[in-house]
């Protein structure tokens, strides 16, 4: 069955960087685009970024454009989110999801605080 | 840019039917598929409806989705309500300018 496992979250100071990973299994990872979605504490879902199946196209929400970079390693079945210049408002649970939106990971919590 | 507007909360009794609306602010609701997600407290979202009205395997047929072009909205209907249906529900859609957008979420209380 499809499994998505996020990791890499933690507590980080404002202005610092963090890289999230999403390990995929149970499907042909290299054939599907992938999304990152986040949810701030007590708030709704916010789309963050998408990457095409082959990495050829990447798109970002305005709130993270220029600071976050989505990437993937199809040889490792892994999706990444490099987060730079982190702000308090980036505090959230970050989820990865397959392009079909049928499968979600369990999420990883990022807390930006001094 | 478009937005998806949902009621903040709805409540209904067990065994009854509830409908949650999702209104698109601009552009046609029929132009891009709508998905619906269920999120129980402390858990990740799960998909209950995709491509307007399709149910993933394992989702009971008590859950159904539809779109209404006249009101430019999508709806999630849950019949035969159970206490386990109590959760937050989010709609989601897309356009080429705004990209992927989620509604603000609706808290369903089954009482």
Describe this structure as you would to a colleague:
The complex is a heterodimer of chains A (114) and B (111). Chain A is mainly beta and 114 residues long. Chain A has no helices and ten strands. Chain A starts with a strand and ends with a strand. The model of chain A has no long low-confidence stretch (mean pLDDT 97). In chain B, a hairpin with a 6-residue loop joins strand 4 (35-39) and strand 5 (46-49). Chain B contains no helices and ten strands. Chain B is globular and about 40 Å long. Classes of the chains: A mainly beta (114), B mainly beta (111). The interface between A and B is medium-sized, with 18 and 18 residues.
Q: What is this structure's SSE topology?
A:
The complex is a heterodimer of chains A (114) and B (111).
Chain A: E1 3-7, E2 10-12, E3 18-25, E4 34-39, E5 45-51, E6 58-60, E7 68-73, E8 78-83, E9 92-98, E10 108-112
Parallel strand pairs in A: 2-10
Antiparallel strand pairs in A: 1-3, 3-8, 4-5, 4-9, 5-6, 7-8, 9-10
Chain B: E1 4-5, E2 9-12, E3 18-24, E4 35-39, E5 46-49, E6 63-68, E7 73-78, E8 87-95, E9 99-102, E10 106-110
Parallel strand pairs in B: 2-10
Antiparallel strand pairs in B: 1-3, 3-7, 4-5, 4-8, 6-7, 8-9, 8-10
